[in-house]
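Handout, tutorial session.
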Amino acid sequence: MAAIFTAPKFSSTPTTSISAANTNIHTRIPHHFSPKPSLPPLPYACSRKTAVSCSHQHAPPPPPSATTTKQTTRNRPDYVPNRISDPNYVRIFDTTLRDGEQSPGASLTSKEKVDIARQLAKLGVDIIEAGFPASSKDDFEAVKTIAKEVGNAVDKDGYVPVICGLSRCNENDIRTAWDAVKYAKRPRIHTFIATSPIHLQYKLRKTKEEVIEIASRMVRFARSLGCDDVEFSPEDAGRSEREFLYEILGEVIRAGATTLNIPDTVGITVPNEFGKLIADIKSNTHGIENVIISTHCQNDLGLSTANTVAGACAGARQLEVTINGIGERAGNASLEEVVMTLKCHGENFGGLYTGINPRHIYMTSKMVEEYTGMHVQPHKAIVGANAFAHESGIHQDGMLKHKGTYEIIAPEDIGFERSNEAGIVLGKLSGRHALKKRLEELGYEIESEQVENIFWRFKAVADQKKRVTDADLRALVSDEVFQPEIVWKLLDLQVTCGTLGLSTATVKLIDADGREHVACSVGSGPVDSAYKAVDLIVKEPATLLEYSMNAVTEGIDAIAATRVLIRGENNHTATNAYTGETVQRTFSGNGAGMDIVVSSVKAYIGALNKMLGFKGKSPVKNPVEKTAVSA
């Protein structure tokens, strides 16, 4: 990253002299085109201005009512698929619901996808890649629902996100994607085909000429369906031959593509190399002035954020990212890292800015973490638990004197409220109003019914703890709010365990219709016996793949947070967008409670509910109460 902040210069080597008069496409975007052999001056090259803080490093902290985010907010340009009126504006394309969901164990239900899409819209994302509609019926329905609900929710400023569906370069995928996204106010089809020598030889087994013909024909087909916003990606562009890239990109522009996405699919490039790739494409591709250039950087070498920023410096005006950086293998460029880098160094980069409202970053991160079950590592930049923690005595001394000594970003800027500055201490005598106010301060917008449920959970915890911390509250909210649609819910649990014999568990569950079901079982421990009792009721075979537990806070009275990962034994499959391989879905579940066995059972039931939600399967029609015993 250091190289980026010292004004990288991406020299390009044009192979074709391009004249603006030669293009046969009428829509023109002069700020995206340069016939010169080197990168144009600002705004495309990063300036050499001294790095500045994006928060309060060189000035006293602003009052709570005046945040850095408000001070730097600029108007979002009107949306036109293939041009941006302000050359400094950078579109944010979020692919959490597509590439992010390809992370093992990150399967999301339709409800969870819609919830995340709504939160992404609140965050201010320009384009939401809602999924890969051809991969499964579940994905198709989820994308369609997002297109209808989120894709038509226009705010007071006229903003509504583009809803995008991914497709391979074949008619069935493209038609399916269009059938899913066409209900949005601003629909987009994103189609791709591989272009690197290794992919051409071993995966596609096609010649360059064949691939160019397929790509241009499929872009034309997408446009023929009525979609005027088509994105094309040459998969594995980072390892593709430059001349071939220029040729295929020029042909898809001629066919009607409006955005060219340049993916570093295997995360092999370094910032200077990727920046030069973008610069070379700008200088050598016919018709490039008529499209938006985009980046998509994987994190295999840990350089996805650096490469993405380098691409923006070189002229890319759409950046593809995911919340928390989740995705295939080592993940993708992280939205929060890319956005806050541009916010901190936008002046260095010639005034680049986005339409993201950073104050929604933390809440979006927590929602994705809870729904996917993929925990954010404590030292993760921007949103990690330790991102604003200071343990060193020297650092603590500096922070007490001035927060800007060791913080370049105020946690409040991303929607994270400091626990010790809230002014409200919650305990067993606290009421609903105090609880609701603190939840709002933490960034939660919760319906009245959910607040009531959380309140009674809060009172139960407060009766056993002197003080309920913000971490406790977040755990309770996650357990009540960030859960899949309820098929089964834990009502009662009784376990007997110790050194004198087998552990036994009696479980009482309630189904979606309110009927109670009871089962007893024995096992090698309290959790094992409880899980077996749940299986007797649910009757849905599943294999437990992972089990983990953490204490939310310190002390013997801490809330336990449990995560499990299961795989169903029946057909729960999806198609991998890149390999075409049919993969078995896995499902995660989270639970929280002061009793570790209760927390564990809640997590297991949450995972089962998510799995059943994919099947749309209702509970078995048992009598009002049924008792089963497992030997």
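The second record follows below. Compare its token runs with those of the first.
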Amino acid sequence: MVILKIAFRNLLEHKVKTAIVGTLIALAVMFMVTGNSILDTIRTGMKQSYSANYTGDLIVHGTSKDSFSLLASGPGAASGSDIPQIPEFQTVRSSIEQMPQVQSVLPLLSGSASISLNEETAGFTMLWGANFDEYALMFPDSLEFTQGGFPEEPGPYILLSESVREAAEKETGKPLHIGDSITLAGFGASGSRLREATIAGFFRFKRGNEQLNLVSLIDANILRSLKGMTRNPMGVDIASSSLGANGTTEAATTDDELFGNGGSLVQTIQPVQSGALVNYDAILGDTSIRNRYTELDPNAWNFLLIRLKDSASIPATQESIQTMLTTGSIDAQVSDWSWGAGTVATLAMALQFIFNIIIAIILVVAIIIIMNTLVISVTERIPEIGTIRAIGAGKGFVRRMILWETLTLSVVAGLVGLLIGSVLLLVVNRVGIASSNMFFAILFGGSTLRPVLSMGSLVWSLLAAVAIGLVSSLYPASIALKIAPVKAMQKI
């Protein structure tokens, strides 16, 4: 094409200006592709770290006007009693397990409690309540046991975090061992509660952070008891009650059954005959009703973690689950791993957002500099442009000529920037960016970051280079089109 030949000739004739503009574009593209590839690698590593070790691919949870997450926020959140339960849990779990793309699920409770040992305060721990066998199947490589391991049978067991253990031993001055019994104090809907738990092991999260290191794993029923998650926290089992004629709930018992009647009062004291055995279990009478009111609800769960067979199906599966919940009028939501990761994922996404803002500012500055350089170039070529117009070239030809010049320069410089950025990423990948900081280990998905070229950043960088060329050519082209051919030829 004639226009391309003219564009290349003009670029070669103005080598200094071409080099300046090309260098700016190449640096901008190199910065874009390198920075976004590193951030994409961090996000991918963080996703692998969290989804493989803590959150799964998707999380079903209840809804609340207050914010909450997998981790109770600390002593102020008590035992996590404000975290909503998943309604109709068995229906939800059964429906999700039948989906072909689902590999496994893990019901989970979240809470917190203070610890005491032999009536001595021994610190605080956040708690995840689960069935230990299900947790081991879902996250087989997430824990590093320093002593003990998963309990072989159900029971009131707790796996204590090493960080929590160290804090407890420091506070009490006494060592903790496997088999020791500790007292947990939690707060639920019906007030404060104390429960005993036996230490079955001590562990560290292989990819922990300051917040995760405070989490201990506990038998789900112990945490339910701490949180007061009975079949009905107010003491009436609605499911087993019947409605009276007036539409009110009639409990399965009467006042006399609960409290007795006048005849139940002891009028005279009957002495215990010598040698007679006292049946202490019968003193309180029939406790079956009371036991039913305080029975723990086995279907009370805060979260359902879901692992998929293929992570590429996360968006489609998330949409399918949410549709199922909405169709069934179940007041629950499904979120991806980043919701479960909480502040760490939010920080990583905020870093990428800030980085892209910086990139946008750099691109605007680059466009302004390139535009000014092209304006100077057009001004110096007024006689040439006037001659072209005088011999019959229309305004469209001149506009295309300048556009092709800037596009050619932008694309070539952009490709150079991509090449430099790719080589730089290859070098950094080979060397690695090591960090002993636990927070960066979570971000990196390991102790060393090895960034790889992101196809998304490559495409966006090329598009940015083309956009630079298009935008930069608009103002210089408008100046060139305002030049009258007669006046331009007078400057020859």
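Points raised in discussion: The two ends are 27 Å apart (CA to CA).
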